[in-house]
């Protein structure tokens, strides 16, 4: 681009010399020398103004002046080096851009070099234990439980979870799924239960083992941000007052509901069931049900029994609007471990040795 600019400036210099009745030789020192920063700054504004004036002069004075200008311009252009003209033609007339500079990129190492983007944020422990299972392989239930316990190597007792994808769309009322299941071997967790009631049922709830019991005073505390409980049970007579807590308890999944067994007349029985291992579940907006069914330190038989109870409950509470294949996929995992895909047919037909 520097040579093209020099050719343009030399041509304009010669034309300005003719317009002001100067000899073309006066411009030779400028034309014969290579342009530098200082020369460009001095000559460029003047050349632009003179070139504009020359164009006006050509329109007003006719062909004679034009002929003189063309002769002078040709003489100035002939004085330019042949290489400058060739470069100008190559770069500006032909429109060929200059070659792009080669950018050196440093090769990626470590986690940044992993092919899957999700693995780049995993811990070293997770990347090691996920090598124990094949990603797309479907395992039978007993093998999956054994493999899961082998991969659960955190410093705390991990919870064992199931994630079951169903062929339902919960945005339709006849395809929503929400129910409870009592796990035979419990969840292995200590549940803090709060009870909202009034009158004589205060003493019943306290004697049944509820950690928190209250009425309107507890409702006010919840409005102020009190959430030190995992399960909230309410009696039907206080539900009109509990309705004002919908925006607070709803998003957290704590709003009492008859389908979940948390709105009941028999409060002592409800408390005992949740203490023993009753679990509430529901399908999320993508049709997946998430159910914890024990702890890592449970025996294999206890985990299998709890898992089969959850599967049977989901099968029993199948929505009326569910059509076609009900089960799409099933995975189990520990709290800090990778998921293991189950074989659906083996899961549904599995029979424990005690029942065989």
CATH class of the domain at 130-189 and 278-355: Alpha Beta
Q: How helical, in percent, are the residues?
A: 40-55%
Beta strand count: 9
User: What's the arrangement of strands in the largest beta sheet?
Assistant: 7-1-8-9
Keywords: Ribonucleoprotein, Ribosomal protein, RNA-binding, rRNA-binding
Family: Belongs to the universal ribosomal protein uL1 family.
GO biological process, one term: translation
Protein name: Ribosomal protein
Features:
four-stranded antiparallel sheet, single chain, alpha/beta, Rossmann fold, Ribulose 1,5 Bisphosphate Carboxylase/Oxygenase, 356 residues, three-stranded parallel sheet
SSE layout and pairings?
Elements: H1 2-19, H2 28-32, H3 37-61, H4 63-79, H5 82-93, H6 124-129, H7 141-151, E1 159-166, E2 178-182, E3 193-196, H8 201-208, E4 212-214, H9 216-223, E5 231-234, H10 239-242, H11 246-249, H12 267-276, E6 278-282, E7 288-295, H13 300-316, E8 327-334, E9 340-341, H14 344-349
Helix pairs in contact: 1-3, 1-4, 1-5, 8-12
């Amino acid at each position: 681009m520097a040579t093209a600019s020099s050719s343009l400036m030399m041509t304009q210099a010669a034309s300005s010399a003719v317009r002001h009745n100067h000899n073309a030789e006066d411009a030779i020192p400028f034309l014969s020398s290579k342009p530098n920063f200082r020369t460009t700054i001095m000559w460029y504004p003047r050349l632009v103004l003179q070139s504009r004036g020359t164009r006006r002069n050509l329109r007003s004075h006719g062909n004679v002046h034009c002929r003189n200008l063309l002769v002078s311009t040709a003489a100035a252009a002939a004085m330019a080096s042949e290489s400058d003209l060739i470069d100008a033609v190559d770069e500006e007339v032909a429109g060929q851009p200059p070659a792009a500079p080669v950018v050196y990129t440093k090769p990626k190492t470590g986690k940044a070099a992993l092919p899957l983007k999700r693995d780049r944020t995993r811990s070293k422990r997770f990347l090691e234990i996920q090598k124990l299972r094949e990603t797309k392989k479907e395992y039978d239930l007993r093998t999956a439980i054994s493999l899961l316990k082998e991969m659960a190597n955190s410093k705390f007792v991990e919870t064992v979870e199931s994630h079951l994808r169903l062929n339902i769309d919960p945005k339709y009322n006849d395809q929503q799924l929400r129910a409870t299941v009592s796990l035979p071997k419990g969840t292995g967790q200590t549940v803090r239960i709060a009870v909202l009631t009034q009158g004589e049922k205060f003493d019943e709830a306290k004697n049944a083992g509820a950690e928190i019991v209250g009425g309107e005073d507890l409702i006010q505390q919840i409005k102020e941000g009190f959430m030190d409980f995992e399960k909230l049970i309410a009696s039907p007579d206080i539900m009109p007052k509990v309705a004002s807590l919908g925006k607070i308890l709803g998003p957290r999944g704590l709003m009492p509901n008859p389908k979940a067994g948390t709105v009941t007349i028999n409060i002592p029985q409800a408390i005992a069931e949740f203490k023993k291992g009753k679990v509430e579940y529901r399908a999320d907006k993508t049709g997946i049900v998430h159910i914890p069914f024990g702890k890592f330190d449970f025996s294999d038989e206890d985990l299998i029994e709890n898992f089969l109870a959850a599967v049977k409950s989901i099968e029993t509470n199948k929505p009326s609007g569910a059509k076609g294949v009900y089960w799409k996929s099933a995975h189990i995992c520990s709290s800090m471990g990778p998921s293991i895909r189950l074989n659906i047919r083996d899961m549904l037909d599995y029979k424990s040795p005690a029942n065989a």
